[in-house]
């Protein structure tokens, strides 16, 4: 088989004159071998018919009534047609295309040229996916090489009803450009085609020489008008999370009421609500999937940390509208930093709330929070100078850094050695990839310098039972966050002092 032109869509009509085989037993035997589907004398639906054929040299010809065949493509569209040598017995099959390009006809509707009962199958000898319609009285029309059949085997179809989509299937893997192969048979034998009341025979052997305009389904009152649009369903298949400042791929799959993918339709996507709406469009492919990208994402953080996304198909003459909504997790960060906190319930209780304290920072955007530094704190058993705290966040991707600093601090609790700290700095940083922390400080106990190195959670012996000083303390939270305390002193009696605390967490990272 050869590739002919480009694809076509529509419905053909043919009034056929056929030869009566009145030339004796041999001709009668040949006629008896002709099948209802596929040319006579062949094993497949798309083979060549027997040599005797309806237009043999012997026998008188009679005119038989044929259906009022219409073109097998949509109303008002104009297609060119041609045949080639070996294109069915007597070259009586036709190939239609719109002339719009090599793949211009792919997926266009193929219509029933007259009403009848559909026969749906695949021919492995070159015809590919096809639909033949038994119109009664021995008349059968067929469209071949379909991308898809849209009716079921044995289904009653009306003239103008879509029965398939133009394609390039062959059933045997041979190369073919999309087009619509159309043929008409009477008692299993190919016939000269007549469509739209026009006798197309003799056919041209070159495309672009002859054209046919369809009136199939043009009459709105025609009882054989196409069926109502099919119902559709959208399923969201895109990104499950989004991060401000970064792109997000939105995607959906569009199928019809039979569960088949819907090709070549625009799906609109909306991310967010109100003044935060962001939109993009995608076109479905042969698998029914459409996608597009929002770049960059700019969304407000909600209480539940989600952002709505909606996929919409507007519908058309063939398919009803549909939409699908889903929720994406919006990546965000949180952090906190403070210089010092203390609780020492002694004879004269000492209690210092976290100072200075950024409080909890929770955001999906970029910001920086740093309360005024505290110049000094004096509270009987402890002192501190130049305490500062800051939380900064960035997007694309999300990142949070919490930092606490103080110039120096002293702790003089009864029954415990004097502890001194200077040059204190703690940092905690989190992204969706990882959390990390660091501590810088100089430590003295009873005036003696203590080497703390870079070891996390280093315990310093104070020589008092139940008392514990942890330097470079790291605490991992259940949600993957990290708290870093430059120093943390606990002792019997409920004593709890924290110096230089920084915390950070990235959320909705999966």
TrEMBL record:
InterPro entries: Cell_wall_metabolism_enzyme, Dup_hybrid_motif, Ig-like_fold, Invasin/intimin_cell_adhesion, M23ase_b-sheet_dom. Residues 1-22 form the signal peptide. Keywords: Signal. Residues 359-369 have a biased composition (Basic and acidic residues). It comes from the Bacteria. The keyword Kinase does not apply. Residues 105-189 form the M23ase beta-sheet core domain. Pfam families: Peptidase_M23. Residues 211-247, 349-371 are annotated as: Disordered. NCBIfam families: choice_anch_P. PANTHER family: MUREIN HYDROLASE ACTIVATOR ENVC (PTHR21666:SF270), PEPTIDASE-RELATED (PTHR21666). This is Peptidoglycan DD-metalloendopeptidase family protein.
């Amino acid at each position: 088989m050869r590739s002919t032109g480009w694809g076509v869509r529509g419905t053909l009509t043919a009034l056929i004159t056929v030869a009566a085989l009145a030339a004796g037993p041999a001709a009668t035997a040949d006629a008896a071998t002709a099948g209802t589907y596929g040319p006579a004398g062949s094993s497949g639906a798309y083979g060549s018919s027997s040599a005797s054929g309806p237009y043999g040299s012997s026998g008188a010809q009679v005119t038989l009534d044929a259906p009022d065949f219409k073109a097998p493509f949509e109303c008002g569209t104009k297609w060119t047609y041609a045949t080639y040598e070996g294109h069915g017995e007597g070259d009586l099959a036709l190939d239609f295309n719109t002339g719009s390009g090599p793949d211009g006809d792919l997926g266009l509707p193929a219509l029933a040229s007259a009403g009848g009962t559909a026969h749906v199958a695949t021919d492995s000898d070159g015809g590919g996916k096809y639909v033949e319609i038994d119109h009664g009285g021995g008349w059968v029309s067929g469209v071949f090489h379909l991308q898809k059949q849209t009716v079921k085997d044995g289904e009653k179809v009306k003239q103008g009803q879509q029965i398939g989509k133009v394609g390039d299937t062959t059933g045997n893997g041979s190369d073919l450009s999309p087009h619509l192969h159309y043929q008409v048979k009477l008692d299993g034998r190919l016939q000269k085609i007549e469509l739209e009341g026009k006798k197309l025979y003799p056919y041209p052997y070159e495309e672009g020489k002859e054209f046919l305009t369809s009136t199939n389904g043009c009459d709105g009152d025609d009882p054989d008008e196409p069926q109502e649009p099919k119902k559709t369903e959208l399923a969201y298949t895109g990104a499950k999370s989004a991060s401000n400042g970064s792109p997000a791929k939105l995607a959906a799959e569009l199928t019809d009421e039979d569960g088949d993918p819907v090709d070549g339709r625009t799906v609109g996507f909306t991310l967010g609500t109100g003044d935060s709406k962001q939109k993009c469009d995608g076109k479905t492919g042969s698998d029914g999937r459409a996608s597009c990208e929002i770049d960059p994402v700019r969304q407000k953080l909600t209480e539940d940390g989600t952002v709505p996304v909606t996929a919409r198909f507007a519908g058309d003459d063939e398919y009803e509208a549909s939409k699908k909504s889903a929720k994406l997790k919006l990546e965000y960060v949180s952090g906190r930093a403070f210089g010092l906190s203390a609780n020492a319930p002694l004879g004269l209780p000492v209690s210092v709330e976290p100072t200075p304290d950024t409080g909890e920072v929770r955001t999906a955007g970029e910001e920086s929070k740093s309360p005024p530094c505290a110049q000094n704190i004096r509270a009987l058993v402890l002192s501190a100078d130049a305490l500062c705290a800051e939380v900064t966040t960035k997007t694309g991707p999300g990142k949070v850094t919490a930092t606490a600093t103080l110039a120096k601090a002293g702790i003089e609790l009864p029954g415990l050695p004097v502890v001194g700290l200077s040059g204190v700095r703690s940092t905690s940083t989190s992204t969706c990839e990882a959390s990390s922390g660091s501590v810088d400080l100089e430590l003295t106990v009873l005036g003696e310098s203590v080497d703390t190195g870079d070891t996390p959670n280093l315990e310093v012996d104070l020589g008092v039972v139940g008392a514990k000083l942890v330097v470079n303390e790291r605490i991992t939270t259940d949600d993957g966050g990290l708290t870093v305390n430059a120093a943390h002193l606990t002792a019997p009696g409920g004593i709890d002092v924290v110096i230089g605390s920084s915390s950070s967490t990235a959320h909705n990272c999966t």
